[in-house]
Predict the structure.
Amino acid sequence: MNELNISGKIPKQIRKWTCHKLECFSDYIEAYTRTLDNNRCCYLELYAGCGNCICKGTDCIIEDSALRALKTETKFAKYILIVRDSQDADSLKQLTASYDTADIKIITGNCVNEKVLQQAFDLIPRSASSFALIDPPGYRKLRWSTIKKLTAHGKDWKGHKIELLIIFPLEMALLRNLTRPECEASITRLYGNRKWQEIKQKRLKGKIGPDEMRRQLVKLFKAGLRGLGYKYVEDFKPASPSSQPFYHIILASDSKRGAKMISDAWGRERYLPCELLYSRKDRP
Ligand SMILES: C[S@@+](CC[C@H](N)C(=O)[O-])C[C@H]1O[C@@H](n2cnc3c(N)ncnc32)[C@H](O)[C@@H]1O
Protein backbone atom coordinates (compact mmCIF):
# COMPACT_ATOMS: atom_id res chain seq x y z
CA MET A 1 0.00 0.00 0.00
CA ASN A 2 1.19 3.53 -0.74
CA GLU A 3 2.44 5.82 1.96
CA LEU A 4 -0.08 8.18 3.36
CA ASN A 5 0.04 11.88 3.65
CA ILE A 6 -1.61 12.18 7.04
CA SER A 7 -2.39 15.88 7.41
CA GLY A 8 -5.44 16.40 9.59
CA LYS A 9 -8.27 15.26 7.35
CA ILE A 10 -6.28 12.86 5.19
CA PRO A 11 -6.96 10.00 5.19
CA LYS A 12 -10.61 10.62 5.96
CA GLN A 13 -12.10 8.74 8.91
CA ILE A 14 -14.95 6.47 8.00
CA ARG A 15 -17.25 4.14 9.87
CA LYS A 16 -17.81 0.46 9.31
CA TRP A 17 -20.79 0.95 7.00
CA THR A 18 -18.66 3.00 4.58
CA CYS A 19 -16.09 0.22 4.49
CA HIS A 20 -18.94 -2.18 3.73
CA LYS A 21 -20.15 0.13 0.94
CA LEU A 22 -16.67 0.24 -0.60
CA GLU A 23 -16.28 -3.53 -0.47
CA CYS A 24 -19.64 -3.89 -2.24
CA PHE A 25 -18.60 -1.26 -4.79
CA SER A 26 -15.43 -3.25 -5.59
CA ASP A 27 -17.52 -6.27 -6.49
CA TYR A 28 -19.98 -4.18 -8.47
CA ILE A 29 -17.40 -2.33 -10.53
CA GLU A 30 -15.46 -5.54 -11.22
CA ALA A 31 -18.65 -7.17 -12.52
CA TYR A 32 -19.58 -4.03 -14.47
CA THR A 33 -16.25 -3.80 -16.29
CA ARG A 34 -16.49 -7.48 -17.22
CA THR A 35 -19.57 -6.59 -19.28
CA LEU A 36 -17.84 -3.87 -21.28
CA ASP A 37 -17.52 -5.05 -24.84
CA ASN A 38 -14.88 -2.50 -25.74
CA ASN A 39 -12.56 -0.37 -23.71
CA ARG A 40 -14.05 2.95 -24.73
CA CYS A 41 -16.13 3.42 -21.61
CA CYS A 42 -15.16 6.36 -19.38
CA TYR A 43 -15.39 6.25 -15.60
CA LEU A 44 -16.55 9.47 -13.95
CA GLU A 45 -16.65 9.99 -10.21
CA LEU A 46 -18.38 13.15 -9.08
CA TYR A 47 -17.55 13.17 -5.39
CA ALA A 48 -14.17 11.50 -5.33
CA GLY A 49 -12.25 11.33 -2.08
CA CYS A 50 -8.52 11.56 -1.36
CA GLY A 51 -7.86 7.93 -2.30
CA ASN A 52 -7.71 6.31 1.11
CA CYS A 53 -9.81 6.16 4.26
CA ILE A 54 -9.13 5.08 7.80
CA CYS A 55 -11.79 3.10 9.61
CA LYS A 56 -12.75 4.50 12.99
CA GLY A 57 -12.19 2.03 15.78
CA THR A 58 -9.99 -0.39 13.85
CA ASP A 59 -7.53 2.07 12.24
CA CYS A 60 -7.73 -0.13 9.18
CA ILE A 61 -6.59 1.80 6.08
CA ILE A 62 -8.65 1.03 3.04
CA GLU A 63 -8.79 2.30 -0.51
CA ASP A 64 -11.72 4.44 -1.55
CA SER A 65 -13.88 4.09 -4.63
CA ALA A 66 -11.51 5.77 -7.11
CA LEU A 67 -8.66 3.38 -6.39
CA ARG A 68 -11.06 0.44 -6.46
CA ALA A 69 -12.34 1.47 -9.88
CA LEU A 70 -8.73 1.59 -11.08
CA LYS A 71 -8.09 -1.94 -9.87
CA THR A 72 -10.57 -3.86 -12.00
CA GLU A 73 -9.19 -6.49 -14.31
CA THR A 74 -10.83 -4.95 -17.37
CA LYS A 75 -10.02 -1.26 -17.48
CA PHE A 76 -12.03 1.82 -18.36
CA ALA A 77 -10.68 3.96 -21.19
CA LYS A 78 -10.40 6.98 -18.95
CA TYR A 79 -10.90 7.85 -15.28
CA ILE A 80 -12.23 11.31 -14.50
CA LEU A 81 -12.27 12.09 -10.80
CA ILE A 82 -13.75 15.28 -9.40
CA VAL A 83 -12.40 16.18 -5.97
CA ARG A 84 -13.44 19.08 -3.79
CA ASP A 85 -10.07 20.66 -3.00
CA SER A 86 -6.37 20.64 -3.80
CA GLN A 87 -5.49 18.67 -0.68
CA ASP A 88 -7.65 15.75 -1.87
CA ALA A 89 -6.33 16.22 -5.41
CA ASP A 90 -2.69 15.99 -4.24
CA SER A 91 -3.36 12.90 -2.18
CA LEU A 92 -5.27 11.22 -5.00
CA LYS A 93 -2.54 12.10 -7.48
CA GLN A 94 0.02 10.53 -5.19
CA LEU A 95 -2.01 7.38 -4.65
CA THR A 96 -2.92 6.92 -8.31
CA ALA A 97 0.64 7.54 -9.54
CA SER A 98 1.39 3.82 -9.59
CA TYR A 99 -1.45 3.32 -12.11
CA ASP A 100 0.60 5.23 -14.66
CA THR A 101 -0.71 3.19 -17.57
CA ALA A 102 -4.26 4.41 -16.97
CA ASP A 103 -5.57 7.68 -18.36
CA ILE A 104 -6.49 9.46 -15.13
CA LYS A 105 -7.72 13.04 -14.97
CA ILE A 106 -8.29 14.71 -11.63
CA ILE A 107 -10.48 17.81 -11.62
CA THR A 108 -10.57 20.04 -8.56
CA GLY A 109 -13.73 21.95 -7.72
CA ASN A 110 -17.36 21.76 -6.74
CA CYS A 111 -18.97 19.15 -8.96
CA VAL A 112 -22.34 20.92 -8.95
CA ASN A 113 -20.66 23.88 -10.60
CA GLU A 114 -21.41 24.08 -14.32
CA LYS A 115 -17.82 24.92 -15.30
CA VAL A 116 -16.37 22.08 -13.24
CA LEU A 117 -18.79 19.57 -14.75
CA GLN A 118 -18.05 20.91 -18.21
CA GLN A 119 -14.34 20.15 -17.69
CA ALA A 120 -15.36 16.52 -17.16
CA PHE A 121 -17.65 16.49 -20.20
CA ASP A 122 -14.86 17.89 -22.35
CA LEU A 123 -12.85 14.78 -21.54
CA ILE A 124 -15.57 12.32 -22.58
CA PRO A 125 -15.83 11.81 -26.32
CA ARG A 126 -19.46 12.26 -27.44
CA SER A 127 -19.83 8.76 -28.82
CA ALA A 128 -18.11 7.03 -25.87
CA SER A 129 -20.15 5.26 -23.24
CA SER A 130 -19.68 6.39 -19.70
CA PHE A 131 -20.40 5.38 -16.16
CA ALA A 132 -20.74 7.82 -13.28
CA LEU A 133 -20.48 7.12 -9.58
CA ILE A 134 -22.38 9.72 -7.58
CA ASP A 135 -21.59 9.36 -3.90
CA PRO A 136 -22.31 12.68 -2.19
CA PRO A 137 -21.48 13.39 1.43
CA GLY A 138 -25.15 13.99 2.28
CA TYR A 139 -28.33 15.04 0.51
CA ARG A 140 -27.54 18.76 0.67
CA LYS A 141 -24.62 18.31 -1.73
CA LEU A 142 -26.60 16.54 -4.41
CA ARG A 143 -28.70 18.53 -6.85
CA TRP A 144 -31.16 17.35 -9.41
CA SER A 145 -29.80 19.94 -11.83
CA THR A 146 -26.47 18.05 -11.81
CA ILE A 147 -28.17 14.74 -12.62
CA LYS A 148 -30.02 16.46 -15.47
CA LYS A 149 -26.80 17.87 -16.87
CA LEU A 150 -25.17 14.44 -16.82
CA THR A 151 -28.10 12.97 -18.69
CA ALA A 152 -28.13 15.79 -21.20
CA HIS A 153 -24.46 15.26 -22.00
CA GLY A 154 -25.37 12.88 -24.77
CA LYS A 155 -25.65 9.28 -25.84
CA ASP A 156 -23.05 6.76 -26.88
CA TRP A 157 -23.01 5.06 -30.26
CA LYS A 158 -25.57 2.54 -28.93
CA GLY A 159 -27.97 5.32 -27.95
CA HIS A 160 -27.27 4.83 -24.23
CA LYS A 161 -27.09 7.77 -21.84
CA ILE A 162 -24.43 7.96 -19.16
CA GLU A 163 -25.05 5.18 -16.64
CA LEU A 164 -25.55 6.47 -13.10
CA LEU A 165 -24.80 4.63 -9.88
CA ILE A 166 -26.13 6.84 -7.12
CA ILE A 167 -25.42 6.29 -3.47
CA PHE A 168 -28.66 7.95 -2.47
CA PRO A 169 -28.18 9.64 0.90
CA LEU A 170 -31.39 8.53 2.54
CA GLU A 171 -29.75 8.82 5.89
CA MET A 172 -30.94 10.26 9.17
CA ALA A 173 -30.28 13.85 8.04
CA LEU A 174 -32.75 13.74 5.17
CA LEU A 175 -35.40 11.95 7.19
CA ARG A 176 -34.94 14.21 10.21
CA ASN A 177 -34.86 17.40 8.15
CA LEU A 178 -37.90 16.58 6.10
CA THR A 179 -40.13 18.57 8.43
CA ARG A 180 -37.78 21.51 9.06
CA PRO A 181 -38.76 24.64 7.11
CA GLU A 182 -35.14 25.77 6.77
CA CYS A 183 -34.31 22.55 4.89
CA GLU A 184 -37.08 22.86 2.29
CA ALA A 185 -34.87 24.50 -0.32
CA SER A 186 -32.11 21.89 -0.13
CA ILE A 187 -34.59 18.99 -0.35
CA THR A 188 -36.29 20.61 -3.33
CA ARG A 189 -32.84 21.02 -4.96
CA LEU A 190 -32.22 17.31 -4.40
CA TYR A 191 -35.47 16.26 -6.08
CA GLY A 192 -35.79 19.09 -8.55
CA ASN A 193 -39.45 19.47 -7.55
CA ARG A 194 -41.70 19.86 -4.51
CA LYS A 195 -43.49 16.52 -4.69
CA TRP A 196 -41.52 15.27 -1.68
CA GLN A 197 -43.73 17.55 0.42
CA GLU A 198 -46.71 15.30 -0.27
CA ILE A 199 -44.78 12.45 1.33
CA LYS A 200 -43.94 14.68 4.26
CA GLN A 201 -47.61 15.57 4.72
CA LYS A 202 -48.67 11.92 4.65
CA ARG A 203 -46.10 11.16 7.31
CA LEU A 204 -47.12 14.13 9.46
CA LYS A 205 -50.78 13.10 9.27
CA GLY A 206 -49.84 9.57 10.30
CA LYS A 207 -51.03 8.09 7.02
CA ILE A 208 -47.68 6.36 6.45
CA GLY A 209 -45.02 5.00 8.78
CA PRO A 210 -41.26 5.66 8.59
CA ASP A 211 -40.52 2.65 6.36
CA GLU A 212 -43.19 3.59 3.86
CA MET A 213 -41.89 7.18 3.91
CA ARG A 214 -38.37 5.90 3.08
CA ARG A 215 -39.78 3.77 0.28
CA GLN A 216 -41.73 6.67 -1.20
CA LEU A 217 -38.77 9.06 -1.01
CA VAL A 218 -36.67 6.60 -3.03
CA LYS A 219 -39.55 5.97 -5.42
CA LEU A 220 -39.93 9.69 -6.09
CA PHE A 221 -36.25 10.06 -6.96
CA LYS A 222 -36.48 7.05 -9.26
CA ALA A 223 -39.52 8.56 -10.96
CA GLY A 224 -37.42 11.62 -11.75
CA LEU A 225 -34.76 9.44 -13.36
CA ARG A 226 -37.36 7.65 -15.45
CA GLY A 227 -38.62 11.06 -16.49
CA LEU A 228 -35.15 11.76 -17.88
CA GLY A 229 -35.63 8.83 -20.22
CA TYR A 230 -33.72 6.02 -18.52
CA LYS A 231 -35.11 2.64 -19.50
CA TYR A 232 -34.02 0.84 -16.34
CA VAL A 233 -34.08 2.47 -12.93
CA GLU A 234 -33.44 0.12 -10.02
CA ASP A 235 -32.94 0.58 -6.33
CA PHE A 236 -31.53 -1.64 -3.70
CA LYS A 237 -31.39 -1.54 0.06
CA PRO A 238 -27.98 -2.83 1.11
CA ALA A 239 -27.78 -5.87 3.35
CA SER A 240 -25.98 -5.34 6.70
CA PRO A 241 -23.95 -4.10 8.49
CA SER A 242 -26.82 -1.96 9.81
CA SER A 243 -30.44 -3.06 9.61
CA GLN A 244 -31.52 0.42 8.53
CA PRO A 245 -28.88 1.48 6.00
CA PHE A 246 -27.63 5.04 5.73
CA TYR A 247 -28.12 5.03 1.98
CA HIS A 248 -29.88 3.34 -0.89
CA ILE A 249 -28.34 2.29 -4.16
CA ILE A 250 -30.05 3.69 -7.21
CA LEU A 251 -29.01 2.71 -10.70
CA ALA A 252 -30.18 4.48 -13.84
CA SER A 253 -29.25 2.80 -17.06
CA ASP A 254 -30.34 2.18 -20.62
CA SER A 255 -29.09 -1.37 -20.37
CA LYS A 256 -30.75 -4.23 -18.53
CA ARG A 257 -27.71 -5.86 -16.95
CA GLY A 258 -27.38 -3.67 -13.82
CA ALA A 259 -30.00 -4.92 -11.36
CA LYS A 260 -28.45 -8.34 -10.86
CA MET A 261 -24.98 -6.90 -10.47
CA ILE A 262 -26.28 -4.58 -7.75
CA SER A 263 -28.02 -7.33 -5.80
CA ASP A 264 -25.01 -9.64 -6.17
CA ALA A 265 -22.70 -6.94 -4.81
CA TRP A 266 -24.87 -5.37 -2.13
CA GLY A 267 -27.20 -8.21 -1.29
CA ARG A 268 -24.96 -10.75 0.28
CA GLU A 269 -23.50 -11.08 3.74
CA ARG A 270 -19.78 -10.36 3.73
CA TYR A 271 -16.80 -9.96 5.99
CA LEU A 272 -14.89 -6.70 6.17
CA PRO A 273 -11.11 -6.31 5.94
CA CYS A 274 -10.88 -5.86 9.74
CA GLU A 275 -12.67 -9.16 10.34
CA LEU A 276 -10.90 -12.43 10.88
CA LEU A 277 -12.71 -14.36 8.17
CA TYR A 278 -12.25 -11.71 5.49
CA SER A 279 -10.76 -12.94 2.29
CA ARG A 280 -10.71 -11.27 -1.10
CA LYS A 281 -11.05 -14.75 -2.56
CA ASP A 282 -14.56 -14.86 -1.05
CA ARG A 283 -15.75 -12.66 -3.84
CA PRO A 284 -18.05 -14.26 -6.32
C1 LIG B 1 -19.24 10.20 0.74
S1 LIG B 1 -17.64 10.74 0.25
C2 LIG B 1 -17.33 9.64 -1.06
C3 LIG B 1 -15.89 9.53 -1.38
C4 LIG B 1 -15.54 8.37 -2.30
N1 LIG B 1 -16.47 8.23 -3.41
C5 LIG B 1 -15.50 7.10 -1.48
O1 LIG B 1 -16.21 6.18 -1.79
O2 LIG B 1 -14.77 7.02 -0.49
C6 LIG B 1 -17.98 12.24 -0.48
C7 LIG B 1 -16.75 13.01 -0.98
O3 LIG B 1 -17.21 14.12 -1.75
C8 LIG B 1 -16.32 15.20 -1.56
N2 LIG B 1 -17.12 16.41 -1.86
C9 LIG B 1 -17.95 17.06 -1.05
N3 LIG B 1 -18.56 18.06 -1.70
C10 LIG B 1 -18.09 18.02 -2.96
C11 LIG B 1 -18.36 18.78 -4.12
N4 LIG B 1 -19.24 19.76 -4.07
N5 LIG B 1 -17.70 18.47 -5.27
C12 LIG B 1 -16.84 17.45 -5.31
N6 LIG B 1 -16.58 16.66 -4.23
C13 LIG B 1 -17.18 16.96 -3.08
C14 LIG B 1 -15.86 15.08 -0.14
O4 LIG B 1 -14.57 15.62 -0.03
C15 LIG B 1 -15.86 13.58 0.07
O5 LIG B 1 -14.57 13.06 -0.13
Remarks:
- Residues 1-6 have pLDDT under 50 and may be disordered.
